[in-house]
Design goal:
Belongs to the PIGC family. This protein has 204 residues and is mainly alpha-helical. It contains 8 helices and no strands. The protein is extended.
Length: 204
């Protein structure tokens, strides 16, 4: 899929081989170091682990370079280094509470796939598909979020609370992704721009 979404000048054999080598090296070292990474934070309390994970995820969301998703702002090497490192640290914190090293390897591999490769893939879709691709990605992301959050309360609360939780989640997703941006675009016609000339400040 990445091969098909690449530009024509980027579909060179040596570039593809270099990317494959980087992936193989990362996953190999991740698999070999999984036992060490699993026991690295085992002595830290669970409350501290959750607090650290929350802090690193906030850093990831804050430092992520959202401009790199658009064609007018090409991606610069190292623009998302802090955000990606914070996400990996958050995954490492959660990995210390998993049953075994194989689960740690699976979690870290999933995190790298979602946080490092998924933004690049979505940017390719946006650049090639335009507004329709943006709408499809928004609907897909919202649907996945809703389906992922549903099992959290599946066996713990009554059916009424499940329905309320699902309705609130659906409404918030629709408002954030559709209602809010549409309202912002409609308000652009009421925006006023104040032009000069301006009186220069005189220091007495």
């Amino acid at each position: 899929m990445f091969w098909l979404m690449k530009e024509v000048n980027e579909r060179e054999f040596h570039k593809v081989i270099s990317e494959i080598k980087s992936g193989v090296v990362f996953f190999t070292f991740c698999f070999l170091l999984a036992p060490i990474l699993h026991s690295l934070l085992s002595s830290v309390s669970t409350d501290s682990i959750y607090a650290m994970c929350f802090f690193f995820l906030v850093v990831y969301w804050t430092c992520f370079d959202y401009r790199t998703h658009w064609k007018g702002h090409p991606r610069k090497p190292g623009s998302n280094t802090i955000s990606l490192s914070s996400a990996l640290l958050a995954a490492l914190c959660l990995a210390s509470r998993l049953p075994g090293p194989y689960h740690t390897f699976a979690l870290l591999s999933t995190v790298v796939t979602l946080l490092a490769l998924w933004p690049t893939l979505t940017r390719r879709f946006r650049n090639h598909g335009g507004d329709r691709a943006q709408i499809c990605l928004t609907i897909l992301s919202g649907s996945v979020t809703i389906l992922s959050a549903w099992p959290i309360v599946y066996n713990k609360v009554s059916f009424e609370y499940k329905c309320v939780f699902l309705c609130v989640l659906v409404m918030s997703t629709v408002c954030i992704n559709f209602v809010g941006p549409c309202y912002l675009l409609r308000m652009q016609k009421f925006k006023r721009t104040i032009h000069g000339p301006w009186d220069e400040a005189v220091v007495e």
